[in-house]
Amino acid sequence: MKILIIGANGKIGQRLTKKLKNTSHPPRAMYRDEVQVAEAKAAGIDAVYGDLEKDFEHAFDGVEAVVFTAGSGAHTGQDKTHLVDRIGAKKAIDTAVKKHVMRFIMVSAYGADASPDQWPDSMKHYYEAKADADKHLLQTQLDFTILKPGRLTDDPGTNNIAIGDDLNREKGTIPRADVATVIEKCLSAPQTIRRSLELLSGDDPIDKALASL
After folding, report:
1. In whole angstroms, what is the distance from residue 72 CA to residue 210 CA?
2. How confident is the model over 177-206, as pLDDT tens digits?
3. Of 31, 110, 126, 127, which is the active-site residue?
């Protein structure tokens, strides 16, 4: 499958693009900066310009799956969070439906489906945007996987995770490298389709954890 990565310049997106470059799921990396597009093409990556705040439908041409890992960041102002994490995500979902790109992996956030009174005030707008985008995806007939990782770190990946519909534990952390690996594995894991999954560092190797779903 050709995989459109929305948010290719983010820390997860960069790792995922590198992972997929020489696999049977080649990436198409979407950037909102023409310089980044040129640099990616020079590195042998199929890259395309696209801005979530504008029209980016052309990026979906010829792809079979979408990974949405764009994000304004938990500490970004409410206006940018609304435009990227809510409106941009919902536009991507609607475009996938319109273009019949059935496989859609959404990188959300641990706790996005929690009761709003559990969200810290400083990040409430972030969780509201993530929850709204997830709800929009759940209402489609797409072959979606919603991944809700805990607090992201730049630590080296361990390849050991905990994943499930409800991990029933306090919030934890997970390296971005492991999230990228999980996304890659989910592309070939039909048991993750139409699932909303919490994701943290844990004790089980990624392949074993996914196989147990």
Report:
1. 28
2. 999 999 999 999 999 999 999 999 999 999
3. 126
